[in-house]
Every structure is written in structure tokens, then in C-alpha cells.
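Pipeline run #58 for the internal structure catalog. This entry was flagged by the ingest filter as a single-chain record with no existing model, so it goes straight to prediction. Upstream metadata was stripped on purpose; only the residue string is passed forward. Reviewer on rotation: M.T. Logging verbosity set to normal.
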Amino acid sequence: MSGLATLGVGFGRMQAVLYAGLVEEEVCPDFQAAVELVGKRWTGAILWALGDGPVFFAQINAAIPGLSDRLLSRRLRELESAGLVHREVHAGTPPRVSYELTQMGAELKPAIRELEDWARRWQVG
């Protein structure tokens, strides 16, 4: 690439080097892990449904047509394991389980809202 102007740009842990319009980037591993977590099928919708406080499993399921109980359970376990969702079992017969965003999960709400606005504006889907 001799003779080409280069410009190094730092974005926190992301590094980009521009070569006359070409970009070589090193993606931040934390960013990539976050995108893969929230980008899994149905996960964005689940996070959206949890946005207004504690909700029961059946309420989440009703808010997201087409989502099976099995997959909802799996995604909720993944989000709980990642620290984004808190699960609470309520005594009774049968016992009921509610879910709510943790502080870490709640910090995603502005990004989820922005993504929703973008999708509506561009009529994605």
C-alpha cells in the first residue's frame, strides 16, 4: 500500500486504519458478544416486552406472537445467565414466575427504543 495516505482512528477498543477509502477494523470483542446475544432470534422482542417492569411468562408469550414456550424459556435463561434479566418465583399453586430487566438490562432500553424507531421509520419487516 505504498503511496497511499493512511489515517489511524481509535474508537475505544476498536481500531480502524483507513487506506484511501478502505477500512481495516478490529472489532471490539465485547461489542461483538453483545450484538450476538441481543441479535439472537426473538431476544430483541423479549427485551422489548420486559421494558416496563416485572412481567409474567404468559404475558411475555402473549406479547410476542409465534414464539414457542420452549424457545422463550431458553432465551430467558440465556438473558438471566448474561445478567440482563432477573427471574423471581412467586409462591402459590401453581407457582408463577416473573421476569424483569436488571440494571444492566435496563441500560439497553434506549438502544432497543432507537432500534424500534429505526425499524418503523424504514419499515423493516
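catalog note: Residues 8 and 17 are 5 Å apart (CA to CA).
catalog note: The first strand starts at residue 6 and ends at 11.
status: ready for reviewer M.T.
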